[in-house]
DNA sequence: AGGATAGCCTGCGGGC
DNA sequence: TGCCCGCAGGCTATCC
């Protein structure tokens, strides 16, 4: 669920309550959602690893990854996987769903007091403690391609033009471009009028420009609407995003194309469900 | 290089 | 109502 727009919306809504807050206490309910950044399997997770007693300085994002950075210099990477949520609960408020809460941070700043919770039923997500933001970047974020929101068309072209794989598969590859998941890949390809199975090497510079613009347009719009809520995605306040109502292809297999009324087709590309318009998205070009 | 497959998990909706 | 099945937004490892 959470792709770049959902994570960015989360970063934007979380920042006002988190930045400047002191971490009074941390409770880790499930040890196994903490994954070491380096390969050394540390047996113990200290409160300090999870920013205990720290003051939150800022939040960073690259692709679908979030980092919470403390004034001490420590950083905590957060990945939401498929079903992860970060919620902020004001003191006195009740959490509607309290199952699968794996980590809780009690926070206090000058204006508010409350707790941040990490919930993740499927546990594909995780927390990644690091000594510093630099370390987190080196160990994890450096393997990501440029962020989808800011990548430049010539950069995308350079990354794609020698490859023979389908464009959809490339868009989902986080080491090529970071932040695009199944929903926004389909939406962007539709907007750019590119067939999901076209080999990357057949895309011209102009195609890459259209595609970059489409990705960024679709994602910016989604961020403004709080992202796409399909099943379970909710933001830090527990609200779902409304971008799903704007989806033109994702989840609309068999329905008419919004541009030409042709029936949208569902296929599988790189083992992922893919929906596209056979008329508007031409494989020949 | 990149395809295919399996695995990590739970929740939900559809069909019976 | 309840059970079984397939499917889901991510990512990794392994084999070919």
Name its key features:
285 residues, alpha+beta, four-stranded antiparallel β-sheet, 6 helices, 24% helix, 21% strand, globular, DNA-binding
Strand order of the largest sheet: 1-6-7-5
User: Structural class of the helix and strand makeup?
Assistant: alpha+beta
Radius of gyration: 20 Å
- The residue fraction in helices comes out at 10-25%
Mean pLDDT: 90
Terminal CA distance:
30 Å
The fraction of residues in strands falls at 15-25%
- Following the backbone from N to C, one meets helices and strands in this order, namely HEEEEEEEEHHHHHEE
Largest β sheet strand count, sense and barrel closure: 4 strands, antiparallel
Question: Treating each run of at least 4 consecutive H or I residues as one helix, how many helices?
Answer: 6
Parts with pLDDT < 50 across at least 5 consecutive residues: none
Number of strands: 10
Shape assignment? globular
